[in-house]
Design a protein that fits this description.
CATH class of the largest domain: Alpha Beta
Number of strands: 25
Largest sheet: 7 strands, mixed
Distance between the termini: 64 Å
Strand content: 15-25%
CATH superfamily of the largest domain: ANL, N-terminal domain
Helix content: 25-40%
Shape: globular
Length: 553
């Protein structure tokens, strides 16, 4: 018998907000520590943005950049651009001027929406000036014509004082007043679910970020299905996420919460004390710390009390087994959900199911999500790998990117003729069908002819009671090709020397896997991407500091 309760719902991004505003207008859509906003309030603000964009001459299908921290302006800008029939390009608030300038030009942005203010921890207007210097000399009232960004016609402040070259909020509101709601509705109804909804830029091994084109179906189908059918509780769906909404790891849970008629909790920035206070007050059913860093910052904070978070029923966490075990002990009432995903798959493409044992969910990353296919192949012969043997995982399904914007060569290298996405991630499959992560293909070290997954060494180092976090990279070696080097953060209140850590490894892992050097990293000093340790940054540290930075002792 078919499971009719698991029917699939696919909708354009803007329709999620419109339906929520129609079905439960007074329900909170998003809650910050100091403010809360209902579905109808967010919809009203997004409609103003959509009308303003149209009033400034932005056409359906145009690309609209969005540069803001987690805020009501981010939501209004994201859904406002979607309501206007535009493609949203969320910009990483951590990008430097060179990266931002490249994306503004490469993405063919017609408009940029941003915020500025004395209390912001980043002056986004100054960041845009650094990326597009000629903007500072431009006249805000005129359509822009800038040599660095030939397609850019408007830079708009959703919040903040007047700045050179930017359309101020008062002028943007005047443009909205010139546009009727009927034009917004006409555009919204013309959007197809396979149209590109957003372009999310992701950094990789290439010189510049790559723009993943994600359809409306890719962005909404999986998150909404999970929120409505997998993350079910007997109370309203309330999700907490501390990550930036320009990243798929936070954006997808927000869309899922909306699809379930739920509420999303977040903050302008992640600070564990504020996050704990917000969760204790609002009682989330699902929390998304995702990675070891945020989870460890929460549980080590002086105000953390797991008993005060007894509303949590689902906890998404990726990390070494010791961390998963600690989290499960802290939240015995919650299901720890293992998952794997990436920007190119619109987030999650596999996750654990309710029937999996703790052994499965603490050592594997779940099974393919409904509607998603995976293969694990030898990266050289492209033959299917047997059970237990690592290989590159390939993903196919509705969630996969339609390609990299303006980069047909990279698209052809990544997505083959049969629409399989070659992820560059190493996985194996267990007898029960669970997927086990072995790191990035590029993070596979070749030590004296032996293949060594960096994540295997990292997980082992985290077994030491004094190790809070670790990352392993390869250093060139004349005899062995390369050898592992470890970067380690020590837990507060503990001490550890490199000799003690290396002694811990002796006899427990192969000699060729034992790091040749250990460098200790101070809390907060890790080079980071949006959500993870940036290993290119560690390689740079090793390269630049080799002469001046001696191994820890």
């Amino acid at each position: 018998m078919s499971n009719n309760a698991q029917w699939c719902e696919v909708t354009p991004v803007a329709d999620l907000l419109g339906r929520g505003a129609d079905d439960h207008p007074d329900r909170d859509l998003i809650v910050f520590p100091d403010s809360r906003h209902t579905y109808s309030q967010v919809h009203e603000g997004a409609m103003r943005v959509a009308r303003g964009l149209i009033g400034l001459g932005v056409e359906a299908g145009d690309h609209v950049g969005l540069l803001a921290h987690n805020s009501i302006e981010f939501l209004e800008g994201f859904f406002g651009a979607a309501l206007a029939g535009c493609v949203v390009v969320p910009l990483n608030a951590r990008h430097k001027s060179s990266e931002l300038g490249y994306i503004i030009e490469n993405a063919d942005l017609t408009a940029i929406l941003t915020v500025t203010g004395d209390n912001d921890y980043i002056d986004f207007a100054e960041l845009v000036y650094a990326a597009v210097p000629s903007l500072k000399a431009a006249t805000a009232s005129a359509r822009l014509s800038l040599p660095e960004a030939p397609r850019l016609r408007s830079a708009i402040l959703l919040r903040g004082e007047d700045r050179e070259g930017f359309v101020p909020r008062i002028a943007f509101s005047a443009a909205a007043d010139r546009t009727g709601i009927e034009e917004v509705e006409r555009r919204r109804l013309q959007v197809r679910v396979r149209d590109t909804a957003a372009i999310l830029y992701t950094s990789g091994t290439t010189a510049n970020p790559k723009g993943c084109m994600l359809s409306h179906e890719a962005l909404t189908r999986g998150p909404v299905h999970r929120a409505r059918n997998r993350l079910v509780t007997d109370t309203p769906h309330i999700s907490w996420g501390g990550g930036p909404l320009f990243h798929i790891a936070a954006l997808a849970p927000l869309l899922g919460a909306m699809g379930a008629g739920g509420t999303y909790l977040t903050d302008t920035y992640f600070e564990p004390g504020r996050a704990i206070d917000l969760m204790v007050r609002e009682r989330p059913t699902t929390i998304w710390p995702w990675f070891p860093g945020p989870m460890q910052m929460l549980t080590s904070h002086p105000t953390f009390d797991a008993a005060a978070l007894d509303s949590v029923r689902y906890l998404f966490l990726i990390g070494p087994r010791v961390l998963i075990t600690e989290a499960q002990n802290l939240f015995p009432q919650a299901e720890l959900v293992a998952a794997c995903g990436m920007t190119e798959t619109s987030g999650i493409y596999a996750l654990s199911d309710e029937s999996e044992t703790f052994e499965d969910r603490s050592s594997a990353q779940g099974k393919p999500a409904p509607g998603i296919e995976v293969r694990i192949i030898d990266p050289f012969t492209h033959e299917e790998q047997p059970i237990g043997v690592p290989g590159e995982i390939l993903v196919r399904g509705y969630c996969v990117t339609d390609g990299y914007y303006k980069d047909p060569q990279k698209t052809a290298e990544t997505i083959d003729d049969d629409r399989w996405l070659h992820t560059g991630d190493l996985y194996s499959r267990t007898e029960s069908g669970c997927l086990v992560f072995h790191g990035r293909l590029k993070d596979m070290l070749k030590v004296g002819g032996e293949n060594v997954a960096a994540i295997e060494i990292e997980s082992f180092l985290c077994e030491h009671p004094a190790v809070l976090n670790s990352a392993v990279i390869g250093r060139p070696d004349a005899r062995l090709d390369e050898v592992p080097v470890a970067f380690v953060e020590i837990r507060e209140g503990h001490s550890l020397s490199s000799d003690e850590l290396l002694a811990f490894c002796q006899g427990k892992i192969g000699r060729y896997k034992i790091p040749r050097e250990v460098y200790f990293i101070e809390p907060g000093a890790w080079p980071m991407s949006a959500t993870k340790i940036n290993k290119r940054g560690l390689h740079q540290i090793l390269l630049e500091k080799a002469d001046s930075m001696s191994p820890a002792s």
